[in-house]
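Run log, item B.
One chain of 211 residues. Sequence copied directly from the ordering sheet:
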Amino acid sequence: MATTLDSTLRNKVSGTTEKGLGRAQDILLAARGLLAAEGYAGLSMRRVAQAAGMSLSNVQHYYGSKDQLLEALLLTTMDAFQARMDGIAAAMRERSQLERFLSTVDMFLEEITDPVIHALFFEIWALASRNPFASTLMDKMLGRERKTVYNLIRGLNPAISDEETMQRAILMVAQIEGLMLFRLDKRRRRAQFDAVRASLRKALLALATMP
């Protein structure tokens, strides 16, 4: 997360010092923990400052409002997802497109069943139903996921048009995100997790390749 955070902040504020980047990271980590543990209602700028061990004015120097903080938190989380997907693509450069796709599906499932990530996104999903700002952020996140999946499956079946490929990518993202409702526990119920992963692979493979 540090690398993507550094990149995000350097693009936002050209002169940000290394010390400043570290403080901004501490703020986001504190906000992430509070949002996952106590929800949006428990996320206040003052409480984030306390959790990060700094003054309220210091937090407001980097993020002027709660909405700005939430946006930065979601975008850096998505940047971390993208970095992991890029890592898979680089590590599997010599493997088939299908193998890269299935490895990325596995990574998505691992991420959404991580307790903190699960709590974080579940809270944002709930918030998006009643908060226009959170809804806009969620749309950005889903747009990035759909584009990523589209690029992974495009051409697996040359007979499928680009428009149809995008429609299938949308369905795949919906299936993956929907699994958060089941609260899969890959540590205490590993057999169940492995069974769901096998079923997910089979379903998404069919969507990616069937005529």
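Observations after the first pass:
- DSSP finds ten helices and no strands in the chain.
- The CA atoms of residues 150 and 169 lie 5 Å apart.
Flagged for discussion on Thursday.
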